[in-house]
Amino acid sequence: MKRVLKDYEPLAGSNAVSQLKQLARDLVGAKVVHVNSTKAGGGVAEILGWLVPLMNDLGLDTSWEIVQGHSEYFQVTKAFHNGLQGNNATLTQRMLEVYEETLTDNANRLRIVLENADFVFIHDPQPAGLLERCNDRSGKWIWRCHIDASHPNRKVWNYLKGKVSAYDASIFSMPDFAQPLVHPQFIIAPSIDPLSDKNCELTETEINNTLQELGIPHDLPILVQISRFDRFKDPIGLIKAFTLLNSSVDARLVLAGGGATDDPEGDAVLEEVKDAAGKNDRIHVLLLPADAHRTINALQRSASIVFQKSTQEGFGLTVTEGMWKGKPVIGGNVGGIRLQVHNHYTGYLVNTPEGAALRARELLRNPVKRERMGLTAQRFVAENFLLTRHLREYLTLMSGLRRGLANYLVAS
Ligand code: UDP
Fold this sequence. Notes:
Rossmann fold, globular
């Protein structure tokens, strides 16, 4: 169902909504194009799913394009992604040719819409090379990096830096990720849509029915991690933590996720996870379809604790999703998870499977603490990670760029 800004007034307050309308006055009619590499799977698609319609509702003429490519191109861009997050990377001549050729094809397809736009938001490295192919561009181009780029592999970063330096601005999710670049950099954290199927209220009946359909008995406390099957999400580390925990506390672990169309490694990682889970019938590994938003909502709501035990993380929308549902979150002590999990208040930050097991045991044995942390977590999301705040920051940035803020910042 299409939602409009007015629908958010009961949650975000009418002042927040009227402030957005005021900010948008400057931008009514502006042509805005967002470009990423998938419409389904992962946090960027999740965000663009609400951002694009709400920008339109505010009177901006907003569209969403994706870059298209063959599997070899997505292998290259996954190597960029992993390299930006610090992995070793080999960039062969062939890989760079595949990247360049794919972007030339995409630029030929999208050139008119991109060159005529007032604002182009290019999300992540996959479409970054479009700018240099749009020589007659008239608008402001912003590179939006959603990845934990705090310690990038130098070869990968140097190559990508050559692509993004000419942008008018870039956006990172937290200050640690910012890089030496010649244009202004802005820090904007992601957010969730509290009214989406992923985050709306559900009845107990729907939650129980979902568990039943998935074959998960509700006889023990449930621990949930929702993620693409990606090694940086550390599903194997979480299984290790769960095995340690289960030697003293009874529980079930649900590891659920699907693929993203731009992530070629998912199948291999899923096999590794299934192997690690072995015959333990308390570990439920679920491969979900791309539109399983209500299922994910129900799983998060059924959880006693939500996990995001990543070893690198740009933000981790799943953390905010769990917190919004009143759950304490045990998260890896990395990247954007640190913005959301405040140790001992909204959950626990952990560095090892042992640490995760210890904190899970503590929380499972202490329902009062769990509830208190969950409520704090929910309030923290209401104050910081709902889409109204995110939209406000985007509009402010766009007005600033339009009025020459970028030139001012560079000059000063
Ligand atoms: N998600 C989903 N289906 C899946 C796995 C994840 O809809 O099978 C959603 C998840 O609920 C969250 C987003 O995709 O909204 C993942 O965002 P996050 O920032 O946690 O991780 P990313 O995949 O972007 O690294």
